[in-house]
Write a structure and sequence with these properties.
Elements: H1 3-21, E1 51-57, H2 63-68, H3 75-82, E2 84-90, H4 98-107, H5 111-114, E3 120-123, E4 128-131, E5 140-142, H6 162-169, E6 176-180, H7 183-190, E7 196-201, E8 204-208, H8 215-223, E9 233-234, E10 264-265, H9 277-284, H10 287-304, E11 313-319, H11 321-329, H12 334-359, E12 363-369, H13 377-380, E13 388-391, H14 392-403, E14 413-417, E15 420-423, H15 427-432, H16 435-446, E16 451-456, H17 457-460, H18 469-477, E17 486-490, E18 494-497, H19 515-518, E19 519-526, E20 532-534, H20 543-551
Parallel strand pairs: 1-11, 1-12, 2-20, 6-7, 6-11, 13-18
Antiparallel strand pairs: 2-19, 3-4, 5-8, 7-8, 9-10, 12-19, 14-15, 15-17, 16-17
Helix pairs in contact: 3-12, 4-7, 10-12, 11-12, 14-16
The structure holds zinc ion.
Length: 580
């Protein structure tokens, strides 16, 4: 939304947030990275953690911890054994997508507040699709001679990130560093003014002018070319008997150049003898990418002296490969099981590195996921359940057809993005005064196989009081001006598919208001955290307020709460622990 229109529509709240949105304003020059700003006054060293480490696993369902923890020996195991494990954490909203989940963890608010409603949406002003981090006022640059286009920043996120607040409230001594394969993860975690925000695109490591580049990343990427992984094989880490389900996962779709059995060799497409686009896809879908991100994070700790400054530093890594693997092979696959075993080893190494460089007990870790995943529909059908693929193009066709008798200009639908239906300019306003035509549209949407319900924007705005958990979840996702005119709710175990033909497609996804997409792990460990298993219902929006409490700062608007049950006063054992 452009600032001018926003002032009319969004009122005072937006005015207050404009400072953070950066709308229509040139970005300030990135801060100098060579010197660390001196805090005005240092707090006692024991009063706060030296480093906050945020780890997000892209696509990790809450039940994976219970299911697979017996196979872990490293960092994931340590989080369960030493940390606070919240078993019933779930996003209470419908748009369970990557950008939305990361923005929620980062800000401690739901999409109805932070405004990141999807990975991408139809922008009514420019009449085109925009990604959640696309910013026309900044320019991306690639490290080590790579190539890139476009610009990304957090300007569309209508709240400061936890890391923005941490830096702002601790006198400028805080360093903020984030890594991911995805811009929408690295940017939302880093916030508006981070020191280093780094992601991966088509074989290159990228940052943007919103943040500036870092010499240590340049040096690392130059010294560790990804093509060194060319020809490596992703082998099983455990004996074959340790794996559940079938090796060839039902409904799975292997990356180009791979089949459905191990080992998966990173050699690009068949017949290729050097790194090609298929190789980089395989690399992103392999544990080698997780290891690379971990090594980058360790280098950041060493080169920037994270955890050694006057304030509390912030390091975040979002591990994207599990999402690529989960989409292709599904949750009931050897690949998902194995990539978590590998991540467990990477995190063991990361924590050992932090123990050495920052000191065990001096840092606090929060691990969560941006969303879960639904089983591959064809796999779910084996249970006899109603499952399938909801054809999005069919929704559009049926709406256009339903409006034919009413004389509406075609196309009436500008775009269906995620579950949001956006009408062409003026069409929805007209429909609202044309009950028969509107009823025909709603009936048409409901007639598509896999559709459970369709909501009108008026039913979702301002978070209405409701007994319906689905409507509440949709309302928590609704952001005026960005969300669709209508919102589709698929049936449970039905996956929304953009494929127009009826041919079978493969793999699976997420993005619905059902528990398999909403339920994620939340694990806290280290400075100020009371070990235990916690069974109370919480949300990942509780992470930022909890970290804020540990760091002695306050957040602005938030939907989360402080997870006080898992906090302890350093040196003072709890009289009665609420944990089981
Ligand atoms: Zn995904």
């Amino acid at each position: 939304m452009q600032l001018k229109q926003c002032l009319l529509v969004c009122g005072l709240t937006t005015l207050l947030m404009t400072e953070f949105s950066g709308a229509q304003m040139p970005h300030a020059a990135p801060p100098s990275h060579n010197t660390r700003a001196k805090p005005k006054a240092s707090l006692p060293p024991s009063a706060r953690p030296k480093l906050v480490v945020l780890l997000v696993v892209d696509q990790m369902r809450g039940d994976y911890v219970d299911k697979f923890k017996g196979q872990w020996t490293g960092g994931l195991k340590r989080l369960v054994q030493e940390g606070a494990w919240f078993r019933e954490a779930a996003y209470p909203y419908a748009a369970t997508e990557t950008c939305v989940g990361h923005a929620t963890i980062s800000t401690g608010a739901f999409p109805a507040t932070h405004g990141m409603i999807a990975n991408a949406w139809w922008d009514r002003d420019s009449q085109k699709m925009v990604t959640c981090t696309f910013d026309p006022n900044v320019k991306n640059s690639a490290y080590a001679g790579g190539s890139t286009t476009g610009g990304d920043s957090a300007w569309r996120m209508r709240l400061p990130a936890f890391s923005d607040e941490l830096r702002f409230q601790s006198g400028g001594a805080t360093r903020v560093v984030t890594f991911s394969l995805k811009a929408r993860a690295a940017v939302t975690m880093g916030g508006h003014k981070a020191d280093a925000v780094t992601w991966f695109e088509n074989g290159s490591w990228i940052t943007s002018s919103a943040y500036g580049s870092m010499p240590f990343v340049e040096d690392f990427v130059k010294a560790h070319a990804m093509k060194a992984d060319y020809g490596k094989a992703w082998e099983l880490s455990l004996p074959k008997s340790e794996y559940w389900y079938d090796e060839k996962a039902t409904g799975a779709e292997a990356a180009e150049g791979w089949d459905l059995t191990f080992p998966h060799v990173l050699r690009g497409k068949a017949g290729s003898s050097e790194p090609d686009p298929a190789f980089y896809n395989q690399w992103e879908m392999s544990p080698f990418a997780d290891t690379y991100l971990t090594n980058l994070a360790e280098r950041a700790v060493d080169q920037l002296g994270l955890g050694k400054g006057g304030g509390t530093d912030f390091l975040a890594v979002s591990y994207s490969s599990p999402d690529h693997v989960g989409h292709a092979f599904g949750p009931r696959s050897w690949e998902i099981q194995d990539i978590l075993v590998r991540l467990d080893k990477d995190l063991a190494e990361l924590f050992e590195h932090l123990d050495t460089k920052v000191g065990r007990g001096n840092y606090v870790v929060a691990l969560s996921a941006d969303h879960g995943v639904v089983p591959v529909p064809e796999d779910m059908q084996k249970t006899g359940s109603d499952a399938g693929r909801l054809r999005v193009p069919e929704v559009q066709e049926k709406i256009e057809k339903a409006l034919e008798p009413f004389g509406y200009t075609k196309p009436a639908v500008a775009r269906i993005a995620s579950a949001d239906i956006f009408f062409s300019t003026g069409t929805y306003e007209k429909l609202k005064t044309d009950p028969a035509a509107l009823r025909a549209v709603l009936d048409a949407v409901r007639s598509v196989p896999g559709v459970a319900e369709v909501y009108r924007a008026e039913e979702l705005r301002d978070r209405p009081a409701t007994q319906s958990p689905i409507r509440m979840a949709e309302a928590n996702s609704y952001f005026e001006g960005r969300s669709g005119d209508l919102v589709i709710v698929p049936k449970p175990y039905w996956l929304m598919s953009n494929r127009a033909d009826k041919a079978r497609d493969y793999g699976t996804g997420h993005g619905t208001p059902y528990n398999y997409d909403q339920h994620v792990p939340v694990l806290l460990m280290g400075w100020g955290i009371e070990h235990g298993e916690y069974f109370g219902a919480i949300t990942p929006a509780d992470i930022a307020p909890t970290l804020a409490s540990l760091c002695g700062i306050s957040l602005a608007s938030r939907d989360g709460r402080v997870l006080a049950e898992a906090l302890k006063t350093p040196g003072t054992p709890k009289a009665s622990a609420p944990a089981r």
